[in-house]
Structures are given as C-alpha cells and as structure tokens.
Amino acid sequence: MPIDRILAARLDRRSLLGATAAAGVSIAMPPALQSRVIGGSSPLASFAGKRGMILHRARPPLLETSMDVFDRGVFTPNDQFFVRWHWAGIPTSIDADSFRLTIRGAVGASLSLSLAELLRMPRVELAAVNQCSGNSRSLFQPRVPGAQWGHGAMGNAKWLGVSLLHVLDLAGVRAGATAVRFGALDRATSADRGLDFDKSLSLDHARDGEVMIAFAMNGEQLPLLNGFPLRLVVPGWYSTYWVKMLSDIEVLDAADDHYWTAKAYRIPAIPGADVPPGSAGFPTTPINAMVPRSWVTNFAEGDRVPFEPTLSLRGIALGGDSGVSRVEVSTDGGNRWQDATLGEDYGRYSFRQWEAQAPLASPGPISLQSRCTNQGGVVQPSVPIWNPSGYMRGNIETTEVVIA
C-alpha cells in the first residue's frame, strides 16, 4: 500500500487514540520493576509497542536495543528501536485533528500547521542512524554517571517527512536571524519547571536541506515512544537534536540561552572530546556530529565457536557525518587487519553492513575487532576517550570469543 494511504488510514483520530492509550499504559511501569532494573540487573522487558528491549528505566523510558537485532538487517525495526526521554511528562494521548506545529519568532509570518497540511507538502526521505550521545557509556573507565547504555542506544531507519528548509521558507526567515529552536510536547516535572526539553541548531544548519520534520519511519507512522506525531531528524548528528513530539519551531535572532543548548550536552572543546579522567573546568562546546563506529554482530562476548579453518564475520558500521568507505577486521586483537566486504550503500548517514572470512590457525581464545574509516578519512582509534559525561565513544570495540 502506498505510504499516503497508510498514513491517511492511521492518522484518523479514533485509531490514533487507541494506539496512544495502549502506549500510555506501558509508560506507567510497576514500581517494583523499576526498582529491580535500577538495581542493575537490566532484564529484557516488554513495553506496549516495543518488544525484546533492554529496560534501563521505566519513567521516563530508557529502552535499549539488543545487539542481536543489528545482525538481522541494516534497518532497525520500529518495535525494537531504542527509546530515550528526558522527562516523565510524556503525553499519552494526542488528537491528530487538533495537533498543530507552530513556526514563530523571527519570521515574516507565523504559521500553525496541521498534520494534514504537512502531509500535503513535498516529501523527502533518507536513511539515517539515530544514536544517543551517551551510547556505550557503561564502558567508560573510570565510570561516569548517566544512563549506563551498552552499544544499543542507536538505530537506523528510513525517515519520511518534510524538509525543514521548506517550512522555514514558507514562514519567511527575517534578516538577522541566527538560530532555530525546537520545542516539544513533553514536559518537565514540577520540581524542574522551566527546563522543558528543547534544542537549537544554527540557522545555516537548519536550512541545509537535509534536516527533516519526519512523520514516518520505515514505512510506518512514528511510534509514540519514538516521537509521534512529528520528530526532527538531523542526519549525522547525535540524537539529542532529534526532538521528539516536535510541536514548536522558533527562529531566534540571538544565541539560544535555554538550558538544553547553553548548559547541557556539551563536550570538551578539543579534538576528540578527550580529557584526562577527573578533569574539570575545561572549555566546552555543544555536542555535534557523530564519529565513525563499527561492531561485530554475529558473535557475542564469551561465545564458544567450533573450530573451522575460516571464521565468518559479520557486522555493521556507520561513518558519522559522512559515509563508510572501508571496514577492516582483526582476529588477533589488532596486530593484523584484513579488509571486509561492504554491503549495499543506503546513503552516507545509514548503517552499512559488512562481512569477512578470517583464517584461523588453531583453537583457543581470540579477540574479534572491526575498524571503520569514513569517507572523510577519519579512522576509528584504538584507545578510548574519556570525558565526564560519557559522550562520543568511538574507539575500536573488542569481542572476546573462544574457538573450541
């Protein structure tokens, strides 16, 4: 069925309220389960609209994708796509008929757009990885506070929506504007009043023609927990900028002084965002473009593998803000490397699958590694970085297995 008919069928008010009501039940997880997870066991848990997720926190939801999902395909299924919210005040019901996206501020004419009006606009589609700034934070040494993600706070989807540039042009950006701020429907708790989540981009970035107001992912409307009815898509940048339940776009004529851009999600203002453990007082800058990463996905830590003269390896890579140009693999902890064969290219912001046949000399423990080089010539480093927020991990990852 064409996407127009799918969206038209699913955006009627009755079916929307039914779906969101079910999701609302899932957000209110029993306190006993929250306590058990916070205690550190991180069991696989079920959320309405989600399956097989690793539950880090129920309210607000932090759900991680299990690594075996990334071995099954280059695109991450919607019902297994990771979830990260900052505040528990997430709407559990949205009326698609009355919902409006507001465009205001330093514009020639403020706009209030319905979903139906957005669906009639010219559409754009691209594949892009959405990755949390703190993905893999649990591997930082020394440990740092924050959600203790493994590698699964990420996902890859085909996003469908309207170019932000098109909408800004409809409103008419006034001379002197410098930035664009994006607000959403979720709300801070009463104790944190005034800190509702919003983020901003420079005007040039917002108007680059790639930033998108998405209403669908992987051929379906956005799941509630992934930002229904609209979310911002900022290809190549970390997901803190991918504002979910987007409802307000404000064009600014001065730098954004709100908390989430001026104070939060900042990294050391040095190449690689790497400082000595325990450092403080260093200059910072807002986190921005992602770095290259890669993983072996067809083996897990501690697997025992029957000996064969050749070991089949498979995995995924992302180039960050440019495409994947090369992936190499090693079975001896990085002493020797061989090229992997790259899979289909879905664009420079997408995951790219790879595979390799690695010779083995004998049984015993081995260290599996992969190393990505992006089209900008940036190569994954062998040494991990450190910063106090646990952001931007991008070093070569190792999977220890035993050839038996």
Automatic annotation (TrEMBL):
Instruction: Output one GO MF annotation.
Output: molybdopterin cofactor binding
Oxidoreductase molybdopterin-binding domain boundaries: 90-260
Which cofactor(s) are needed, names only? Mo-molybdopterin
Q: Which InterPro entries match?
A: Ig_E-set, MoCF_OxRdtse_dimer, Mopterin_OxRdtase_euk, OxRdtase_Mopterin-bd_dom, OxRdtase_Mopterin-bd_sf, TAT_signal
Highest taxon above the source species: Bacteria
Domain Moybdenum cofactor oxidoreductase dimerisation, residue spans: 287-392
Write out the entry's keywords from A to Z.
Metal-binding, Molybdenum, Oxidoreductase
Q: What SUPFAM superfamilies does UniProt report for this protein, alphabetically?
A: E set domains, Oxidoreductase molybdopterin-binding domain
UniProt name for this protein: Molybdopterin-dependent oxidoreductase
